Structure formats: C-alpha cells, structure tokens
Amino acid sequence: MSYIKPKFRHPNLPTNRLGYTVADYDGAVSTLCAGCGHDSISAAIRNACFASALEPHRIAKISGIGCSSKMPTYFLGKSHGFNSVHGRMPSVATGASLANRDLTYVGVSGDGDTASIGMGQFIHLIRRNLNMTYIVANNGCYGLTKGQDSATADLGSVSKAGDANPFDGIDLASLAILQGASFVGRSFSGDKTQLEPLIRAAMAHKGFAFIDVVSPCVTFNNHAGSTKSYSETRDHLDVMPLDFVPMREEIRTQYAEGTTQSVTLHDGSVIHLHKADTSYRSDDRKSAMHAVQTAEDEGRILTGLLYLDPDSQDLHQNIQLASRPLNELGKDELCPGSKVLNSINEGLR
Amino acid sequence: MKPTNTNDPEYFHKVVDCQYACPAHTPVPEYIRLIAQERYSDAYMINWESNVFPGVLGRTCDRPCEPACRRGRVEEEPVAICRLKRVAADFKDDVSNRMPKAGPKNGKKIALIGGGPASLTVARDLAPLGYEMHLFDAQVKGGGFMRSEIPSFRLPESVLDEEVGYVLDMGVHAQFDTYIDSLQSILDKEYDAVFVGCGAPRGRDLPKLPGRAEADANIHIGLDWLANVAFDHTQTIGKRVIVLGGGNTAMDCCRTSRRLGGEDVKVIVRSPFDSMKASPWEKEDAIHEGIPIIDNHVPKEFVLENGKLVGMTFEKVEAVFDKDGKRNLVPTGEEPAFYPCDDVLIAIGQENAFPWIEESTGVRFTSWGTPIINDDETFQSTRKEVFFGGDAAFGPSNIITAVAHGHKAAVSIDLYCQGKDLSVRPPPHVTLVSQKMGIHEWSYDSIPVDDKREAVPLVDLKAALKSRTLEVELGFDLDTAFVQAERCLNCDAQTVFTEANCIECDACTDICPTSCISFVENAPEAELRQSLLVPAETLDQDIYVSDTLETGRVLVKDEDVCLHCGLCAERCPTAAWDMQMFAYNLAKAAPILTEVT
Lengths: 349, 597
Hints:
The complex is a heterodimer of chains A (about 350) and B (about 600). Chain A is of the alpha/beta class. Chain A has one domain (about 20-325): Rossmann fold (3-Layer(aba) Sandwich). Chain A has helices spanning about 35-50, 65-70, 90-100, 110-115, 120-130, 170-180, 190-205, 230-235, 285-295, 315-320, 330-335, 340-349; strands spanning about 60-65, 80-85, 105-110, 130-140, 140, 150, 185-190, 210-215, 235-240, 240-245, 260-265, 270-275, 300-310. In chain A, helix 1 crosses helix 7 (about 190-205). The longest helix of chain A is centred in the N-terminal third of the chain and has 15 residues, at about 35-50. The termini of chain A are far apart. Chain B is α/β, with parallel strands linked by helices and about 600 residues long. Chain B has four domains: about 10-95 and about 440-485, Orthogonal Bundle (Fumarate Reductase Iron-sulfur Protein, Chain B, domain 2); about 100-200 and about 350-415, FAD/NAD(P)-binding domain, CATH 3.50.50; about 205-350, FAD/NAD(P)-binding domain (3-Layer(bba) Sandwich); about 495-585, Alpha-Beta Plaits (2-Layer Sandwich), CATH 3.30.70. In chain B, about 30% of the residues lie in helices and about 20% in strands. In chain B, the strands form seven sheets. A five-stranded parallel sheet of chain B has the order 3-2-1-4-16, with helices on one face. A five-stranded parallel sheet of chain B has the order 6-14-7-8-9. In chain B, strands 10, 11, 12 and 13 form a four-stranded antiparallel sheet that branches. In chain B, helix 3 packs antiparallel against helix 4, helix 13 crosses helix 14 and helix 14 (about 250-260) packs parallel to helix 15 (about 280-290). The longest helix of chain B has 19 residues, at about 400-415. The interface of A and B includes residues 2, 39, 42 and 43 of A.
C-alpha cells in the first residue's frame, strides 16, 4: 500500500483568494479502508476550506476516537489538530474555543463517539452553542472493532454477521434540532455537491453547527440488508440542494420563489436553500422536525440544511467572555492586581 | 459523449505518449523499467526489436518521444529517454547470440539500393523469413547517412559497425563500393522486389548568389563536406568559417569545423533562432563549443578580393506573420552586414535526386522530385515491385523515421511476394495484463520519484576540440541511469475502468494527485472537458469516458497529466479501477524476433 502521495499536481489547478490550491489543504494519505465514506468527507472538508479561502493555520481540527476520529490526519495537514479521548471531543473543543475564540473549529466524530460514549458531552455542547462545526461520520456500525451495530443503526438493518438490529436507531439530526442546535444539517458522503456548501455554511455560521453525514462503512456495512450502504442510501435520499455564496462574491444565480429560500449569515454570506416543499421553513424548529419526521416515516432520508437560526448567541456572547483570544491579552489584563481586587471587594461590601 | 472504446488498441497506445510519438513505436517505458532492473541486455533487445540501431539512436536520435513525454507536462523536463537508450547499449552484455539468424531460404530475392537505416531495417525484417537479401551501396561500409553525415565525435564508428553488423550477419549479400547507376539494370536481374533506400543525397546549393562560382574553392556543400571528413578526404578548414543554415546538419558542420582548425566559426541563419530546424540540444551543444548563432540574416553575396573569398554580406530581416499565420522574412532596411571568413559551408537543406532511375522503369516522380508512393503505409511506387523508404521516399527526415519506413516497407514486400493485398495490414501485437500483486500492490514502481533530469556529462572541451573522433558525450553512469530511469511515469501501466464494479464512493477522485478523475453529468465533448475538476484544455490528449453509472453520471478521466501512480486503483474498494500493463508492438514482416520475459 502506498503511504506517499506523489508531489506532482495538475499544472492548471485553480487557486483561491489566498493563492492556495486545493492541494495546499491536503493531509496525509488515508489509512482507512479503500472506499470508506469518511475519506469523501475528508475531501469535502478540504474542498470547503479551499473554496472558502480559509487560512489553514487559523483552523483547528478536533476529534475523539474511532475510524471517524482518525480523519483529521487526512485533511488540512497545515492546521492545528487535537485527537482527544473517546467521546470527549466536546470538552476539548470547548476549552480550545474559550482560550482562542478566533480560530475556526472543526470537530469530527462518529456515531459511536457521539451517540454512545460521547452522548452526554454532545448534548451539553449543543446546549452551550459553542461556535464550531461538528461533523458526525455516521456509518451505523463500529468499523474499528469489526462492525457491531452502533447506536445509530436503523431498526431492522442487517449486520454483516447476519443479525437484524432489534433497536431503534438514534437520529442525531432530530436530536440536535430538538435540543436547540442553531444549525443542523444532514448529508451523504457520496454527495459532495451538497456536502461541500453545507460545510462551508456551517463554518460561516456563528454558533454550533451540526452535520450528520451518512458515510457507508465499505468493509462492514455495505452489504445487502444494511440500511447505510452506498446503494441503499442513494435509493432513499431526499436531497435538498443548497448553494453557499460568501459575502465577497456576487450573487449570480436567479432562484424561483416558493421552493427556494435565502438566508443571510452573521458574516454576510448567503445560503440558498432548495426546499423539499413550499411549506418547509428552515428557520422554524417545528417545521424542520416535522419534515425530518415525515421523511423518516416514508422511509426516506431528508438531506440538506434542516434547521438554521442565523442570529443565535454563541457561548462567548452568552456568558460575556473576553472579546479577544487569551494569547492576545497582556499580563495586566489577565492579572489586573490587588487594586482591582480591592475595588471589586469594596463593591460587594 | 460515447463511452471510450478501450478495445481499440490505438486508444491506450496514444496514452503512452513517448511510444506513440516514436515513428517506430519503440516501447519506451518497458525498456526503461528493464534499465532500472539492471537488465541492460533485455532493454537493448526491446529497443533493437523496434528500432534496430539502439546504440546509434541513443546518441543521435531526433527524439520525438521527449517533447511528447508526459513528465514534461507535470514538471520542467521530460525523461532522458534517448540517453537511457544509450545506457542500454553501453552496458549490455554480448547480445550477438540473441540476434535472429537468416531463415531457411524461401526462394525469393530482394534487392536493396542503399545501405542506410531504411534498407538495413528491411533486411533485418525479411532475412529471418528466408528472403535472400542483396544490398548495394556506393560507400565502403554500410550505414549510409549514419556513417557519412554524423561526425564521429557524436557517433563512434565502433558503435555503428556493431549495429550494422548485426543486420549484415543475417546472411545479407552486401556489395559495397558499388554505385547503382541504373534501376533498369537491377530490374533486369529479376529480383522479386526492389527496395530503394538510397537517401536524399544532394545538399542544396546557392548557385545564383553573386560570387558563388568565383569563390568555389572555399565554398562547400555541408553534406558532401561531412562525408569527406568522415572518410578522411578532408582534414582541415580555414580559421574563419561561416556555416549557412539552421538545421542539425549545420550544427554538425560548425562543430566539425571547430575540430579541423576552425577558430572563429559562426552559424548564420535566415530564420529567427527559435524557429531554426535544429534540435534545441544540438544548438546548445554548438553554443557550448563557442559557436555563435546569428539569426535573421539572409545571404546576399560572396565577397572576393583578388579572386579569393574574404567574407559574405547578409541582408538583415525580421519575421512577420500575415493573416494566415504564414511567415515572411521582411528586410529591416538596415545596412547589409559583412562577416569575414576563409571558408563557407552551405547546409541549407537537401534535395532528392534520382538520376539513375530511368523513366522507362515506370517509376514516377512528383513535381518535388520525390517518388509517387501509394501511401505512407505500403511504400509501394508506381512500379509494383519497387518500394521506397527513408529519405528517398518523402525527402530528408531522420534515422528513426527511416527505420519506421523500413518496417512498413518490409511488411509490404512480404505481402507482395506472397501475392497478397498490400492494403490489408497485419494488426499490432497487443497485450493488456493486470499488474495487481496484492490488495494494494502493483508489479511496477508505481509512485513517481521527484528527481530532476540530469544532463549527460561531457569530455573536457579542450580535449574534445582537438579530436574529430573523441566522443563528446560520456553517457550516464549506472547510478545516474537508475535515477533517470525511475523518473519514467510508466504510462503503459494503464488505468482500466470497469463501470459495473463502481459504487461511486469518490475514493479515486479524492486521492488523485493530479485531479484527473471526475464524476459528472455526460455532455458533448467540448462541454464535458470544461465540466471536470480541472478543465481538460490539452485537446490532443484524450478523455476516458465511462458508460453511464448508477447515479446517471459518467466517470471522466483526463489522460493529460495522469501520473499512472495507481492510487485510484489502490483506493478503489471494488477493483473498478485496475492498473494493466499495455504492450504494443508494431506489426513487422517477421514475427516478434526477440523474446524478453
């Protein structure tokens, strides 16, 4: 197996506003199984960061444990990274964000890391609305330990060993909407035309952005009977496409009324949504819940930007933290001295 | 677009840019791999099978393969294909016992007029089949232009003797020192076929230029002069020499002059430097030897004093392109330039001349003086049993083209002698074999190295200029040869796609280092080329289009800068991609003569 990617690139590779090519956002060659959906997600993150012209050194990748959590090695080789404890990525991300609020945080997790061991941390991360993008590479099985059913495996889905799953799966997207996440999306690793703009929008969103990505496990969950195989997923997708137009770019495409909706984000960029039906409203939690549930009842997987509150207050605003990263604060600001302490004490007398 | 038909061997052949560009279609990557494996003799035989003169060509080839080399499109310099060929020739063992022998006599007799590369190739292809070959040449030894026009400091005589010898040793009846002055006399001897490979031996002159006749003693036709030097008839030249012309012969003339006493040698050429016919490396070699190349100067007059040549005047011109892109050399109106000299060598091109072919033979010529030939596959002339090849067929070209002509003409002669239809050409020998050794392992060095091209070391300039026969280029040593061989991208390891296996997981498009692979909606070619990850702008490079996949999209692979690194196939979970070694051997009259396993 090759662990080296040749250095040669296409001579006409396009560059972004920073003068970088997409290759500048590459990581190491993946050691995941050939054909793993997670590799497609890695590529989508790479492409999204390139397209949005983010500076690699201003991005931090954080993950837990699992196949999914190996992913950050395979994209953005020139960014910061932290491979943390199983299910504990939210704590590390919170700590990092508190220390340096100016970086773009990309958390990568899996169905085990989020829906099982990390569920407690995940829920509280949503509740706090930490400004980060949280991507779950969801394959419905524990690929790293030979494919046992995970907490997101669908009821009745047949494992590679031949057993039908007796439990209902946890739908992380529904859970995130219900719990008050300010940005909830769902996508499929094999649909980059949707996944890339979704990731770009998530990164531009100020607040907690959650994306549940169906990502087939090519080794343990890509057989007949599995509900998360490439072909089953493709057969049951209800795709709501979206376009992401950054603030600096002119909006060129014309959109028909009714089935499309435009949302302006905090930083001035615009998301154009193509809705499944005219009554669907992505800024209405009930409507989103209803649409996701209806699709599920019909055996369909609704993908796209499911819910968005563009004006949410993130953790820093909510608890009024310092407006600059800690590493930019001087000694006097961090430790104002006994005079200030005395004045605080006086104020409490 | 319709799905690409990979069953047509020409599709994958075109992907192997070097082999496709080679007139004789030498399987370049195959012999380069053998060099990397230290199998020099095998590498030599692979070459010999296709181009008959690997040692000669490894030093003198016009190398159409190198500008075509894919490596030149992903970094600065192509693979040093030509000089690697020389490595195979330099380091091979004795291969004489691997050479084919004359076959059992089939009763047919063939006459070969001229002993150059085209004729020798015909002999090589037909002798093993049992044809009795009779070769006639005016020179004292075989090799034709390779012997008379290429200076020994570029091509040592021993190399030429060896390779000409391999052919002649197949029982060829060679009559040297025999100038054929009548085609009829040959036809009268009732050969079953006659092959004319006598070259285009006349150098063009400037008969109408003022002073030409008066200064004749110091004006030489380049080609004749080189031949005289090769056969030791000419041993000196004046101190100040002007070489007229901008082709490779001009370069050979100026460099030879430097070795025969020329101190102030100049090349003066009509056209701009960049559009000179000489190969860039030949121009570099001349400049390296202290020879200035003065461009945009049209010869005006030979200047004499007291009946002796003292110099030449030139009109200064500039290239102006008209609406149709046609170039005109327009005088700048400046004063004519005068350059003093003792001797002038005219190397401004060659003319065909067949004064020895009688009209009554039925061989007809075009208004350009070249024979009318059926087409560039059969090489049959208007007289059925007479075939042409090499420079004699279409005018001056190069050795490798002459070899290619020879192979095709030999096929024609063989078909003709069997009374078969010449237009039904035998197909090439083609194989396509998977290189898979394990789940992620290939039987070739798949990941390209980053090493740069290195120049071939030269002998010390002073020593070089003192000798006419001392070879200037030293050739690569084995360590350098290995690195240079490893630069080859193995373009014959083809990326073969099977639609039915593809699950559209995107793994190949994500990993591809040069962004060659896209999954897109099908469209007409022009549109499709623009819709790829990186638009396929190199139009002479094909795009490989699959049949419609499950999602309704097609796979499109732009062949242009594919590194053949196999990562697409390594990352493919279903073996929809496979790396398959493509071997393409041009059909020759003889079956494959040399087996290399």
